[in-house]
Amino acid sequence: MLSPDVLAGHVERISTVGWTVVESAIEPELIASLIEDLNETEERLKAVPANNVFEGYSTLRVYNLLARSEIWQQVPVHANVLPIVEQVLDAGCLISSLSSIRIQPGEKQQPLHADDQLIPVARPHEPFVCNSMWALTDFTEENGATRLVSGSHLLDSAPDFGSDYETVPAEMESGSVLIWNGSLWHGGGANSTKKDRVGIAMNYCAGFLRQQENQQLGIPREVAATFSPLLQRLAGYGIYNGLMGHINKSDPKFLLKNPTKLGSGPMVWDAIG
């Protein structure tokens, strides 16, 4: 659990520099379990590179991890990560996507980009997206540590795709977590070593924004019903500011309790009186 001072420090760094690293954030036992499950999932799915310049020619990715195995339910709600994200966005934030990124030997640098650059809003702007990268293995400049352009979240444009910019590598040990403002320019690094660089992209967005992965359709309802109330809300089974996401004036979380009956719930109009 982060102390108030440590939490405030990370939030301030994201505000000013655009990113921060929470060192030794994740328990070694959880990291080991995630690695084991990811290895099994990649083998089961016969994961192969997407073979495009953005996702990589020597990079394995698995999307929609919450639908794959119960172990992934611990990732979005982790107490050393979520409180920082909630401070950058707000307590009504949502899971945007949860995926793995295994950068294999020989992979080239990913083009720099901003995770919110497809949102048609003038830049700079208040944070709509706050993303994190969990280091399941050590991240080094040589094996593909995420490259960052500090302060770029305050600029009035996204990077020109494919252009070169001065970057710093987010080097960190296994179990650490990189968290950044979604407007920050960044990209995966090149892997010139003989070992994989394995990370988990745990991405969040504001509650009023459409999620990158469709959580409600991508995760079977019977699986979502096993989630904790907090994880259900993060996946989108909730309403934002008493309005957004409702079904006939009802919180969609009731569908997980009884698929044939919606429950009642207070809406913004009820609060007005």
Explain the overall architecture:
With 273 residues, the chain is of the alpha+beta class. The chain has a single domain (4-212), classed as Sandwich (Jelly Rolls), CATH 2.60.120. 23% of the residues lie in helices and 17% in strands. It is built from eight helices and nine strands. It has helices at residues 4-16, 28-45, 82-88, 215-218, 221-224, 229-234, 253-257, 268-272; strands spanning 19-22, 59-62, 94-103, 129-135, 147-149, 168-169, 177-181, 185-187, 197-205. Strands 1-7-4-9-3-2 form a six-stranded antiparallel beta sheet, with helices on one face. Helix 1 (4-16) packs across helix 3 (82-88). It is globular, with a radius of gyration of 19 Å. The chain starts with a helix and ends with a helix. The model has no long low-confidence stretch (mean pLDDT 95). GO terms for molecular function: metal ion binding; oxidoreductase activity. InterPro entries: Phytyl_CoA_dOase-like.
